[in-house]
Amino acid sequence: HVKIIDLSTERLSELEATYGVHNIEYIQSKEASIADALSVSDLVIGAVYVIGKEAPKIVTEGMLDSMTPGSVMVDISIDQGGCFETSRPTNHDEPTFVQNGVVHYCVTNMPGAVPLTATHALNKATLPFVLDLANKGINQALKDDEHLFNGLNIQGGKVVHPAVKEALLG
After folding, report:
1. How far is the CA of 136 from the CAs of 130, 142, 157, in angstroms?
2. How far is it, in rounded angstroms, from Cα 155 to Cα 103?
3. Model-level pTM?
């Protein structure tokens, strides 16, 4: 049984339309719903990302007390500071630690464990953008693709992305 928790009801609806409801529960993210899910979970994967900012701590240390000893928490957000209050960066040589009876896996740069596969995936994801930039030029490529434009952080030597600007310049 899988529980997917997200702030966005729109995203939850999209996921439900794609994957259905068989063995999947879609839950609006609130402190109480997170705590309830933790109390019955054997594996928790935290994947929180806020553009240009540190990941918010969505699981507090106190919430771990309701978890079954030996449960596992994987913090995919560790490169952005982690989304569990108890997370601390680990590495591939010593990937886990136990706190409050819960196993934590907080390896930074997780794709580094499979470098060739990670490189192929990154190339596949970025090549269309690179080709557009090469064939259309920067201005036209940005104008034609809202996703490329939304990913623009610096232009003309100035930080232009609002969240990155706030994180770096205050």
Report:
1. 10, 9, 21
2. 43
3. 0.80
